[in-house]
Amino acid sequence: SGPVGVKEFLSDFLPRPLVEKKEEGYCLDYDRPLSIGKVRSFYGNFGVIVKAYAYMMALGGPGLREACELAVLNANYLRHHLQEDYHIAFKRLCKHEFVASGQKQLAENGVSTLDIAKRLMDYGFHPPTVYFPLIVKEALMIEPVETESRERLDEFIAAMREIAREARENPDILHQAPHSTVIKRVDEVRAARQPILRWPGLGKEILKK
User: Would you say domain 73-184 falls under CATH 3.40.50.10380?
Assistant: First the structure.
């Protein structure tokens, strides 16, 4: 979420309402006949901006700097401890995130990044972003952020090392992961070709009752 800037000749087509500054204050301008209309109902992602602003105000300047330093420290701590078991895309200090890769596991054991991500769920971790950025094959974008403790980071490292060991010794356990969730792997091809875009409980039969 954030501001969108366009050149003046495109301003008539911006989604409405726009926030306008008047002499008496700010107001919403709906009188824009060439507007493409609303692109998001209600308040959109405005709440994200409010939360970010509140977080920054609560921390203050020194606190925000410390949070940034902790995020960078945490990311580099993970990067350092995972480099023996996983390919690290860029061999240098990172900022708040870094890109690992399952290239080694795929080449040596037939275990993909998707397998690794699914297996992480069995160890109690939400999988990181996978297959992005696209310029890195089998990418795992890992971003620990500033709120993770040293203990939690060590737990993640241990889980990733155990998954690397499993890839070498028992790759099938990764191919079939996750094992601890109610729903295993979603049929993404079927979801794309036969999408269900509304909740069936909202049918006319239900509403009549």
Answer: no
